[in-house]
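Narrative progress, year one. The postdoctoral researcher (J.K.) led the effort to move from monomer predictions toward full complexes, under supervision of the PI. The following entry was the first complex the group processed end to end, covering 705 residues in total.
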Amino acid sequence: MTMQFRLKSCHFSPILLPCIFAVALIAGLWSVALYQMGAARENYLTGATRDAENFATSLTVRTERAIDVIDQTVDLMKFAYDEQGAGLNIKALISGGVISADIFNRVSVLDRDANVLLSSTLAGAAKVAASPLVFSAVASNAALFAARAPAGTLKERGKLSIHKPLAGPDAGTRVIQMTRRRNRPDGSFNGAIVAAIDPLYFSRIYDSVDLGRQGTISLVGNDGIIRARRSSANDSANGSANDSANGSANDPIGRDEKGTPMFKSMAQYQHGAMRAVSTIDGIDRIWAYRKLEDQALYVVVGVGVDDRLKPFIVMQRQLLALAVFSSLLILVFTGLLIMLIRRLGRARELAMAESHNKTVLLSNMSHELRTPLNGILGYAELLKEELFDAEKRSFAQYIHDSGTHLLSLVNSLLQISKIEAGEVSVQWKGENLSELLSQAINTHASNARAKGLVLSLAMGRDLPPELICDRMRLLQVLNNLLHNAIKFTASGKVELAVSAKAQGIRFSVADTGAGVAPELREAIFNSFFQVERHSMQGTGLGLAIAKQLVELMGGSIGVESTPGHGATFFFILPLKVAP
Amino acid sequence: MTINSMPIVVVEDNEMSQHLIAFQLKRIGFDQVILFANGVDAIEWLADNECALLLTDCQMPKMSGFEVTRHIREREKSTGAHLAIIAITASAMEQDRALCLEAGMDGYLAKPIQMAAIRAALAPWL
């Protein structure tokens, strides 16, 4: 019953420990990996935001410059018309390089009723020529309306207005009109100068910037209408041209972005950044916007989140693979460890069971041996007393001695087996030290006297009068040592000495016998070791039992010897506090 | 009738051991030794007879020494008498001594039994 229980209880705990350790290790590993991934991801996104903001800032400056170029031309036209009137030769301005044919589709002068006073389709705008009248009318009305509209804000010189993109003369094309108000000498409204440019003009500026595959740059008015946009996502070699030329349903130019959270943020701040999914192409981007200094226009830079996270995802994949691999490794090692522990546990159980079985066997054997021993010893003793012939009596004595020896062997075997099986316990009790030592000496006094040896006891100072010990075990150790000392000493003396040491009480038995060779000083404490192997006497178990008992009592045993000059067996018992 | 005039009862199943203990007791001075090979016969005899001491083996067929002791102690409850019972056992373990005393025995003799041990064990009761 107790055996079963003990085996079970020692089965679980050693396996639990590596399991907990493995789980903690894996949990730690994953939390570090996940934290690292989160931090890295955050880093990449912060970098993307910073980049987008920097791009927005620099592109704002470049956009402002591009608008300045147009404004200068429009301004120049205004003054030129004011001076030269209908006689103004636009073509000459163009051929003279004053008006860049690369930029302008068309430049017109309108009167206050939006009639075209003067207009030129520029060389670069062959496509406009297809239906100049339609385009002109649309352009003029819209432009004039816009130039006139915020009456309160019209100042002396006015400001260049940049209007919503309109459908160009060709199907699918777009133009952005920019107007500047013309004043009468008294400052009242007298018409406008209208310059039509292709949105490509802005797109081209943005083309030189590498924002990644999903990057976009847009020019958006505070009315929410997209003026120009560059997106690399659907770019081909001359993608920008297609972008605005196709005019397909998903052409973003002219789209109204008023409803987006991005625009709501733009309406409040001069610049900012946020993350949002594009309403145009559904791509998740980090956006940065910045308002132009003099215009109600924003440059909006979008950086694709997937774009920017690509290196992170590669890193993340590697980190995940590493974490999975490490976890598997930990699991495999833990598994192996558990197997090993199980195997060791089983081996230990077997050894314990074997040890126990051995004790049971020896115990039964000892029981069985006692009945014949009873006969041998009992009758030998009776015989000794009944025989009057000295020789015959000595025979009886030999039988008796042999029986006694056999009995002590049986007892020792049983005891050592029990100690090894862990079935011997120590009973601590306060004992009178000098009385205990006297008893040990007295037990051996007659034997020593018979051999002509001097047996003495030397007690050191500072010894406690009472010692907490297991009287029976301590006496047995002392008896075994004294017995051996007397047995192996032919002449001289045997002294039992006891003294107080820092580590505890030191007991020593010194003899003047043959001594112990250095190479035997360890082996001598093993079971069935004998210095004189041919000797009929000696159990060979006395020292082994002494060592086991001393260790059972928490002490240590040893021997000092000069071969030929005797040996000193000693052991130190740690002082115990009264229970 | 003095205590020495009463017999000593020995319950022992091993014939040699019976023979030996009888001689050992005789050597000490007890001529009246009644031997039984099992506890049942001993108890039956004790129902009608008196003895000075009971020496009993512990492990025996039919009835163990412990049972013999318990029977006798049970019977003594009504009479108030106390028979000295000493165990003879081949189990020399420390706990065996405790077992004997627990069963109601007064003493303990471990085999092999020597004269000195018998004298010491019997001394308090004679």
